[in-house]
Amino acid sequence: MILPIYIYGHPVLRKIAKDIDPETYLNLQELIDNMYETMYNADGVGLAAPQIGLDDRIFVVDLKPLADDEHPEFKNFKKVFINADITEKTGETELVEEGCLSIPGIHEKVPREDRIRIKYLDENLQPHDEEYTGYMARVIQHEYDHLDGVMFVDRISPMRKRMIKSKLANMEKGKVSCSYRVRTV
Ligand code: NI
């Protein structure tokens, strides 16, 4: 089922999400299916639970649309991250453009570390402890930020933030146009 995507300004996007208890969580697989369907419908490569109004620590990523000759590994990068914990951020800080389904129409360069280590449960509740680099590390950090109530525009330069201030103010007032169903404040 395609769910509405919550837009910048909605308070749920600023909440600290809680770990889920996979043993008692109802319809976890259905939630995961809905998150993927909602993400694909909006042409996204990542979606975190707060973006569909839930303060649960879960996000999904599928980098397949970005796979090319330079990055064939993206083709099979479809993952669910449950109760994730980024335990290390290292490497160079790189400045790369990002967007977000909760902030439609805005793309800005965001500084992020190039290498991370993350512990998480997958959709079968199997534990993992893995390292990621480059764009994979970036997308994971972006989605992980959502669980802590952080959005990518919080990390851009003050000058760029001023440039997009009025657009963000409009979103906070519920003025937004995009191709998918949304929920504003
Ligand atoms: Ni986002």
Question: How would you describe the overall organization of this protein?
Answer:
The chain has one domain: Peptide deformylase (Peptide Deformylase, Alpha-Beta Complex), CATH 3.90.45. The strands form two sheets. It has a five-stranded antiparallel β-sheet, sandwiched between helices. A two-stranded parallel sheet has the order 1-7. It is α+β, with helices and mostly antiparallel strands and 185 residues long. A hairpin with a 5-residue loop joins strand 5 and strand 6. The mean pLDDT is 96. It has four helices and seven strands, in the order βαβββββαααβ. The two termini are 22 Å apart. The structure holds nickel (II) ion (NI). Nickel (II) ion is lined by residues 100-102, 142, 146.
Secondary structure layout:
Blueprint: E1 5-6, H1 28-41, E2 46-48, E3 58-62, E4 78-98, E5 108-121, E6 127-133, H2 134-147, H3 158-163, H4 165-172, E7 182-183
This protein binds nickel (II) ion.
Summarize the structure.
The chain has 185 residues and is of the alpha+beta class. The protein contains four helices and seven strands.
> Could you list the spans in which at least 5 consecutive residues all have pLDDT below 50?
none
Give me the secondary-structure category: alpha+beta
The termini sit apart by: 22 Å
Tally of individual domains: 1
Give the averaged pLDDT, no decimals.
Answer: 96
Cofactors, ions, other ligands:
nickel (II) ion
Strand content: 25-35%
Following the backbone from N to C, one meets helices and strands in this order, namely EHEEEEEHHHE
- Count every beta strand, where a strand is a DSSP E run of 2 or more residues: 7
CATH architecture: Alpha-Beta Complex
Radius of gyration: 16 Å
DSSP helix count? Answer: 4
Fraction in helix: 10-25%
Quick one: CATH superfamily? Answer: Peptide deformylase
Which overall shape is indicated by the principal axes computed on the Cα atoms? globular
Note the main sheet: 5 strands, antiparallel
- The first-level CATH class is given as Alpha Beta
Q: Kindly report the spatial arrangement of strands forming the biggest sheet.
A: 2-3-4-5-6
